[in-house]
Amino acid sequence: MARNSGRSGDPPPSPDPLSVAVVDSHCHLDLMDTEVEAALAAATAVGVTRAVTVGVDLATSRWQADVADAHPQLYAAVAIHPNEAARGVSEETFAQIADLARRDKVRAVGETGLDYYRTPPEQHAAQQESFRRHIAIAKATGRALMIHDREAHEDTLRILVEEGAPEKVIFHAFSGDAAMAKICADAGYVMSFAGNVTFKNATNLREAAAVAPAELLLVETDAPFLTPVPWRGRPGGPYLIPLTLRVLAETRGVGVAELATAIAANAERVFGPW
Fold it and tell me: Distance between CA atoms of 184 and 203, rounded to whole angstroms?
């Protein structure tokens, strides 16, 4: 089910391998121009030995669950993306997402949440209702909640409190500042940093990454999107995790192997052992 992602140019070259194996905690293998087996082989070659592939609607969620079943190094996340949910979600769709979430290789309900960047105010209520329903599914199934939060920090945090957050919460492609990172840390929410933390104008993200507790950090690609520098705008893949991880380590003033070890342990705690 590889589909064109809209990224332009050739895929970037492989970075230098990591000495400690890590997990890409969020990617979209169905949107990559590379077949799954080739994408996983390229990632494994640089020390990214496992990944979580993420759905955005019912069809892609089912695809992620099926591809995870077929590949031991994969887990899946299933949900209706907030931009899809803005048009309303049927009861039958919620029921099917809940059924998918109970499958063994599905370890997260996501990506769900709020996106006020692309959604007009009159559709915020529908997004919020979908988010609440996904929180309930995550709690009922014992899965991690994987949150998409874009220009909606206040409402996202408020709804988590109102509904009662699941035991494991992940802010995918964390987009807050250091103050929000501290709020998330106090609540025990995991912060997953993507390739945009490497962008020149992402000072706020690097400040957040610097203060986030090591035990609440994950790293992701959101592939094929958010490709890290120096390849921003090119099609990404899980094999580019080392570029982001090295920037995170430099930002935090720690060794790459030390940070990779912590992140690998966090991924197993959040998603379960592979």
Answer: 18
Annotation: CATH topology of 22-271: TIM Barrel (3.20.20)
Q: What is the CA radius of gyration of the chain?
A: 17
Those residues whose C-beta lies under 8 Å from the C-beta of residue 149, and which sit 6 or more positions away, are: 113, 114, 115, 156, 171, 175, 176
Copy the structure tokens of residue 86: 């803005």
Answer for the pair 77, 106: CB distance below 8 angstroms, yes or no. yes
Q: In the structure encoding, which two tokens stand for residue 255, read together?
A: 């060794």
**Domain ranges for the chain:** 22-271
Please provide residue 249's backbone torsions phi and psi, each rounded to the nearest 5 degrees. -65, -45
| pLDDT tens digit sequence for 141-197 | 999 999 999 999 999 999 999 999 999 999 999 999 999 999 999 999 999 999 999
Does the predicted TM-score (pTM) go above 0.85?
A: yes
